[in-house]
Structure formats: structure tokens, C-alpha cells
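Input chain follows. Return C-alpha cells only.
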Amino acid sequence: GDLCLAQRPLTAPSSTMSGGFFRGTSLDQDVRFANKEKKMIEGKKWPAEFDQKVNMSKVNFDVIKVWIARRVTELLGFEDDVVVGYVISQLEAKTPDPKQMQIYLTGFLERNARVFVTELWNHLLSAQQSPGGIPQSLLEEKKAEIQQKKAETARIEAELKRQKEEAERTLREAMAQAERERERERPKARSRSRSRSRSRSKDRKDRKERDTERDRETERDRERKRDRDRDREDRKSTR
């Protein structure tokens, strides 16, 4: 029965209702509709919080509007400005009625209408008790979101620090490895240096020996020449 009524075209009450009745209908139709709506409300079991009144002047309406748009989109799976606009228009009334709101929303949100209106009404009851007019659950949600962002920022910073330390460690290891390579090369270099030094010393010694031998040979040549000269002189004297 309530689904049939709830599937009536949904528009903002400010443009479709006057004094609780739909415009464009006869008084008899309005009375029958009002009576059927009253019977539906009386015949349903409603959450206890729906009996508590909400003073919208104590509610931060801008925060609630954001929540309404987000929650309607979550429940429908897409954005619906008509449904959001209807809910907002109902809350702009001096005495918003959660029961009537749920009945009208059933044609759009179906079984989620009860979930949505119950959540909305609890938010409003909490908001009117809050100094800033913001529901406590939304404050906690915002705090959790901030904490999550801080945790994510801390995680990113820790990861960057880890990567930096890893890069520095890799660089140190590379430098140490290069130094070890140089250390291993130094004995070979010294050995080659000593080998070259020995080779140069041997070359010098060989040159010296060759020079000495050459000098000796030169001296022997001189001796032989002197001997020949004396022999000639001796032969001349004997004549």
C-alpha cells in the first residue's frame, strides 16, 4: 500500500503542495490522499527517534546538505538532484517530518528509504545537540579522514626516507668496493714498478759493462799500437 503512494511523481513541496495538500487536485482528492497518508503513517512501525523533534535553526545545514548529496548518490549509484532537492526542501520546513519523508522517498530509494531517513534523522538529532551544529558522527568521520591523511603522509615520508637511505647505502657500498679494487691493484702496480726498476737497473749495469769492455778494448788497441810503434823504432835502430 505505501509503495503505491510513494510512487507518485516526486517534486518539491514548495511547488506542489499548499497547506499539506497537492495543488491541481480537488478538495475531495486531497482529503482522500491525506487520509490514506495518515493511515500509512499510523499503520507502520517507526524508529523511536522519529518521535523526537528537530530544531533546524540549531543545525549546520550546509554540512547536512553535503552529506545528503553524498549519501543519496551512494544509495542510488548515481547523482539525483531531484531526490536531493526534495530532501533539502523538506528540511527547510519549520517542523520536518521524517515519517512523511520516508513514505515519499520509498518510490525512489525503495528499501533504502528507511535506511537513509533513519541516518539523516539521527544526524539531525545529534547536530542540534552539538555547539557547532555538526553531527558527532560526521565530526568523528572527518577526524578519521584527517588521521588517515596524516598516516598516509607519514607513510610516504617514511618510504622516501627509506629510499634515500637505501640509495646512500648503495653509494657507500659502491665506493667501498671501488676502494677495495684500488687496494688490490696497488701491489700489482708496485710489483710492476719494482720490475721496471730492476729492468732499468739491469740495463744500466749492462750499459756500464759494455762501456767498460769498450774502454778496455780501446786501451788494448792503444797498447797494440804502441807495441807496433816500438817494434818499428827498434827495427830502424838496428839498421
